[in-house]
From TrEMBL:
The keyword Disulfide bond applies. It comes from Hufsiella ginkgonis. Residues 1-20 form the signal peptide. The active site is at E365 (proton acceptor 2), E365 (proton acceptor 1), H495 (proton donor 1), H495 (proton donor 2). Zn(2+) 2 binds at H364, H368, E394. Pfam families: Peptidase_M2. Keywords: Disulfide bond, Glycoprotein, Metal-binding, Signal, Zinc. This is Peptidase.
């Protein structure tokens, strides 16, 4: 008769469970202690950064000093040898830990790679260089015709002016800031690369890409796939724009490539101002509103689909409107959302004016704010309070910006008259000149330039040449005149300086945006994706909060598949614009195409 071994198996299982519990308790003790100090230092750094972005006084180094001190304290802690070694040690037996613990420990190591104590001198120098670059960027005095102008004023010229000489002057003014940032960008490239290389990353670009669970080649393959899928539609838009703008500016010979100053955006990333859809011009109503109404109305939209009120601190602490002309200081004019303490303190930095662009932007920025508020919950530890991936955050904001621009929504809001007759193709064209046109810039020019900058160590004396080489290849645009290496036109884009090597986030976000919108329109609202009204529909809010709630505690592709039934795909975006594609081919019949069919 065989000897029974059940008691032995039970004993082994009990011993194994007890060992797992001990290791999990040890890991949790470390994570909890780390989180407590992390939050304190993160909040202090956020406050210093907030001050440096909202009140820039020429010659005053107070903010820069505080940013330096708090940034170094945060870097010293997150990159400490003790934290790196402890996290690595605990991950040696990660099979014994919970999935949430493993994610937090990996996050600790990812954060450490940006501030490793093993190269503390490099980290300190990088922080100082980043602060100096930010002050130069946002403290720059833009000049037009010998007078100081805001970027809003430059943008207004590029949107409305028909005199090409005046347009070129405004465009060139917008690029002057890059000249003083070129050397600093080179320094930042060296310091950022050295920082992450200390923990085994090839370069800063590959470090940023790794946050998606991808390597550089995999990310480039993904975004090139998106670029390739949208190329035929972009090629039609590019051809259409060349001919239509030549007519507008009374230029007889249609150029093969679009001169950058012809387009209504400083980087040619959004051409939507080219088209005014009859009946859809909300500016006539919006300009009668106070700027504050733009933000409160956006908050009302979110409340209507089931989101809570914004906290009182949001209204008290945010910087929502342009700095007064006599303020004696400047502020960062780029819209952004801030989760100051990874808890209840959420803020927005904008320069809202009562127009349709800021109306969309306000709805977009509040998307970030409500995402922060939703994943700040008992089930998501502070270290994982961020988007499922970085693109999700932008997708949520852009989704609500799109929803707030659709005809049924605008009618419901009283921003256009009910029953207004509009040209649906022109409405689609305007949207395509925003969303589709953005892809070659974000997934092409910007991403390829930063890959070359960090992974390819692009020489400083080739920055401008490479920038315009890529702009021509992907966007089909050229500068109005020779732009030699005295310039650094890439550095005129905020993200190149202070949000580096992440611009593919925005391209991916647009793909996610249309995937989510397609699902909402067809499965929840049962409406045409091109004519929806989210307002007041709690089921839409429930769907979005389900995606937002886990933050970064779940795999990003799994979140997408569980909620939409599909992994990342550009098909909903292509389907959305299919009627426009047919129309454009008719309009472009007989016209010369200058962009290759494939990239």
């Amino acid at each position: 008769m065989k000897k029974r071994c059940f008691p032995v198996l039970i004993l082994l299982l009990f011993s194994s469970c007890a060992s797992n519990e001990r290791k999990q308790a040890e890991a949790q003790s470390f994570i909890d202690a780390y989180t407590t100090e992390y939050l304190e230092l993160y909040t202090a750094s956020s406050e210093a950064q907030w001050a440096s972005n909202t009140k820039i006084v020429e010659g005053d180094t107070t903010n820069a000093h505080l940013v330096q001190v708090t940034g170094e304290a945060f870097a010293n802690f997150t990159g400490s040898k003790e934290n790196i070694e402890r996290a690595r040690k605990l991950l040696e037996t990660k099979s014994d830990l919970t999935g949430l613990q493993v994610k937090q420990l990996n996050k600790i190591l990812y954060t450490a790679a940006n501030n490793p104590a093993t190269v503390s001198d490099v980290v300190k120098a990088r922080i100082k260089a980043e602060n100096a670059q930010t002050e130069k960027l946002f403290g720059f005095d833009f000049q037009l015709n010998g007078k100081s102008v805001s970027t809003n004023e430059i943008d207004a010229v590029l949107k409305d002016e028909t005199d090409l000489a005046k347009r070129q002057a405004a465009w060139e003014s917008s690029k002057e800031v890059g000249k003083g940032l070129k050397t600093g960008l080179t320094s930042l490239r060296e310091l950022r690369n050295k920082t992450v290389q200390a923990l085994g990353y090839k370069d800063f670009f590959s470090y940023q890409v790794s946050d998606y669970g991808l390597n550089t080649d995999e990310m480039m393959a993904l975004i090139q796939k998106i670029n390739g899928e949208l190329r035929p539609l972009y090629r039609e838009l590019h051809t259409y724009a060349r001919y239509e703008l030549a007519k507008k500016y009374h230029v007889q010979e249609v150029p093969e490539y679009l001169p950058a100053h012809w387009l209504p955006n400083r980087w040619a990333q959004d051409w939507s101002a080219m088209v005014s859809v009859r009946g859809m011009n909300t500016d006539s109503v919006l300009k009668t509103k106070p700027a504050a109404w733009i933000v409160t109305d956006a908050a009302d939209f979110y409340k209507s689909i089931g989101y809570p009120e914004l906290p009182a601190s949001f209204w008290k602490k945010s910087s929502l409107y342009p700095a007064p002309a006599n303020a004696g200081y400047k502020k960062n004019n780029h819209a952004s959302a801030w989760h100051m303490d990874l808890d209840k303190d959420v803020r927005s930095l904008m320069s809202v004016e009562p127009n349709s662009e800021w109306y969309e932007t306000a709805n977009h920025e509040l998307g970030h704010i409500f995402y922060y508020m939703t994943y700040t919950n008992k089930d998501v530890p502070p270290l994982l309070r961020e988007g499922a991936n970085r693109a999700y955050h932008e997708a949520m904001g852009s989704l609500m910006g799109l929803a707030a621009a659709q005809k049924p929504f605008l009618e419901n809001k009283g921003l256009i008259a009910k029953g207004t007759r509009t040209d649906e193709i022109q409405a689609l064209l305007k949207e395509a000149l925003n969303y589709v046109v953005f892809i070659p810039f974000s997934a092409g020019t910007m991403t390829e330039f930063e890959k070359e900058l960090y992974a390819g160590n692009l020489p400083q004396d080739q920055y401008n040449r490479k920038w315009w080489e890529l702009a021509k290849k992907y966007q089909g645009i050229v500068p109005p005149a020779d732009r030699g290496e005295i310039y650094c036109d890439a550095a005129s884009k905020t993200h190149i300086n202070d949000d580096a090597a992440q611009y593919y986030d925005y391209a991916l976000s647009y793909v996610i945006l249309f995937q989510l919108h397609d699902h909402i329109a067809k499965e929840i609202l049962h409406q045409d994706p091109k004519a929806t009204n989210y307002y007041g529909n709690k089921a839409v809010g429930d769907f979005l909060r389900k995606i937002m709630y886990p933050g970064a505690s779940k795999d990003w592709n799994m979140v997408l598949k569980e909620n939409t039934g599909s992994e990342l795909t550009a098909k909903p975006m292509l389907d959305y614009f299919e009627p426009l594609m047919k129309w454009l081919k008719v309009q472009n019949k007989g016209r010369k195409y200058t962009l290759p069919e494939t990239i």
